[in-house]
């Protein structure tokens, strides 16, 4: 089977443009509703990354302070 017949990007893009032109509010609502879960996942992952970076920085400061105390004791 020809891949072109399986998924015709030209026809899909024409349909999408026609849909956006005929019903712009419906189109935008659908796009926003489709993208909302991705934005939420992005926020959660960003929050987790920020927490990991904070924990790493805290651990590095703790190690640095310990090393300074060892150096002072010598």
TrEMBL record:
Record bears the keyword Lipid biosynthesis: no
Ranges that cross the membrane: 25-47
Subcellular location: Membrane
Gene Ontology cellular component list: membrane
Keyword field contains Cytoplasm: no
Main location: membrane
Membrane topology: Single-pass membrane protein
Keywords: Coiled coil, Membrane, Transmembrane, Transmembrane helix
InterPro entries attached to this UniProt entry: Smim15
Family to which this protein belongs: Belongs to the SMIM15 family.
PANTHER family: SMALL INTEGRAL MEMBRANE PROTEIN 15 (PTHR28644)
Protein name per the record: Small integral membrane protein 15
Organism listed in the record: Chrysochloris asiatica
High-level lineage: Eukaryota, Metazoa, Chordata, Craniata, Vertebrata
């Amino acid at each position: 089977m020809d891949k072109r017949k399986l998924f015709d990007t030209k026809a899909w893009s024409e349909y999408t443009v026609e849909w956006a032109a005929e019903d712009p509010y419906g189109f935008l609502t659908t796009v926003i509703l489709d993208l909302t879960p991705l934005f939420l996942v992005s926020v959660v992952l960003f929050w987790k990354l920020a927490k990991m970076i904070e924990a790493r920085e805290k651990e590095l400061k703790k190690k640095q302070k310990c090393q300074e105390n060892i150096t002072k004791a010598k």
